[in-house]
UniProtKB/TrEMBL annotation:
<dbReference type="InterPro" id="IPR050597">
    <property type="entry name" value="Cytochrome_c_Oxidase_Subunit"/>
</dbReference>
<keyword id="KW-0349">Heme</keyword>
<keyword id="KW-0472">Membrane</keyword>
<keyword id="KW-0479">Metal-binding</keyword>
<feature type="transmembrane region" description="Helical">
    <location>
        <begin position="13"/>
        <end position="36"/>
    </location>
</feature>
<dbReference type="GO" id="GO:0046872">
    <property type="term" value="F:metal ion binding"/>
</dbReference>
<feature type="domain" description="Cytochrome c">
    <location>
        <begin position="89"/>
        <end position="167"/>
    </location>
</feature>
<dbReference type="InterPro" id="IPR009056">
    <property type="entry name" value="Cyt_c-like_dom"/>
</dbReference>
<keyword id="KW-1133">Transmembrane helix</keyword>
<keyword id="KW-0408">Iron</keyword>
<feature type="domain" description="Cytochrome c">
    <location>
        <begin position="187"/>
        <end position="268"/>
    </location>
</feature>
<keyword id="KW-0812">Transmembrane</keyword>
<dbReference type="GO" id="GO:0020037">
    <property type="term" value="F:heme binding"/>
</dbReference>
<protein>
    <submittedName>
        <fullName>Cytochrome c553</fullName>
    </submittedName>
</protein>
<keyword id="KW-0813">Transport</keyword>
<keyword id="KW-0249">Electron transport</keyword>
<dbReference type="InterPro" id="IPR036909">
    <property type="entry name" value="Cyt_c-like_dom_sf"/>
</dbReference>
């Protein structure tokens, strides 16, 4: 049989070999990207497309129709040398500003609030970045933008230094006696979910590692944390560097958001 006759649809061996190869590939794709993810509890109630993307390790939603195009937040703050030991004058100025403008929502001496995060003991660079983002409009807030609009860069540094100098606020919520942390939350916080492109929370926010300007989440109220995760997922909040939080939040279910929020709310 010459080569011309070998690669032709008239040759049954050629047809069966090509058809068999295609069939095996289709079955392998269905098993690897649909059936196995469906059998895994990690994918829960996700749609077919979300399961396929999760198995492939890519986000299922690159763009939300409700999300306007935004300029990425350009305030990347690296802790300067000596940031852990700010000058007493800076802390004093920050205390004055905080008592005049911040205590009504964030509490006197930064006691725990439900709708506004406690700032006591928070990383100075994280506070500074958020203040800059409020001021520039990268993080929209009618209340915060009004308060912070006329403040100098030194004022923002002073506020950050003051709050960072305080001891950590107590946990916003307490776990019931004999009740341990939610295993779903522990897995997401400490291990993440690589199949859905979810990095461990602790890799950026502390416990395992910390990335510059990522805030400490322990002690924040569950209501506040859940609201922020939902805002990142919808695109309403978009001041995360390189869309890191938006990519993560879009892959999380509402139940997972609540579980992670409760986990951090009970942490000191």
């Amino acid at each position: 049989m010459n080569e011309e006759r070998l690669f032709t649809l008239r040759n049954p061996w050629f047809v069966w070999s090509v058809g068999g190869t295609v069939a095996i590939a289709v079955v392998a794709i269905l098993i690897g990207f649909v059936w196995l993810p469906s059998a895994s509890s990690a994918f829960g109630d996700l749609s077919l497309w979300a399961r396929i993307c999760g198995a492939a390790g890519v986000p299922s939603s690159w763009y939300s129709g409700n999300e306007k195009s935004q300029v990425p937040s350009d305030v990347v703050v690296l802790p300067p040398a000596g940031a852990n030991h700010p000058l007493a004058d800076s802390i004093g100025r920050g205390a004055t500003l905080a008592n005049q403008h911040c205590s009504m929502c964030h509490g006197v001496l930064a006691t725990v609030q439900v709708t506004a995060p406690p700032l006591a003991g928070q990383y100075a660079d994280a506070i500074y970045k958020e203040l800059r983002d409020f001021q520039s409009g990268q993080r929209p807030s009618a209340v915060m933008q009004e308060i912070i609009a006329g403040r100098s860069d030194q004022d923002l540094h002073d506020l950050a230094a003051y709050y960072a100098s305080l001891p950590l606020a107590p946990a916003a919520e307490k776990t019931r006696a004999g009740e341990g942390p939610d295993p779903i939350a522990v897995r997401l916080v400490m291990q993440g979910d690589p199949q859905r492109n979810i990095a461990p929370c602790a890799a950026c926010h502390g416990q395992l590692d910390r990335k510059g300007a990522a805030p400490w989440l322990g002690g924040l109220s569950a209501a506040y944390l859940s609201a922020q995760l939902q805002a990142f997922a919808s695109g309403a909040r978009h001041n995360d560097i390189n869309e890191q939080m938006r990519h993560v939040a879009r892959q999380m279910t509402p139940e997972e958001m609540d579980a992670v929020s409760r986990y951090y709310a009970a942490m000191q």
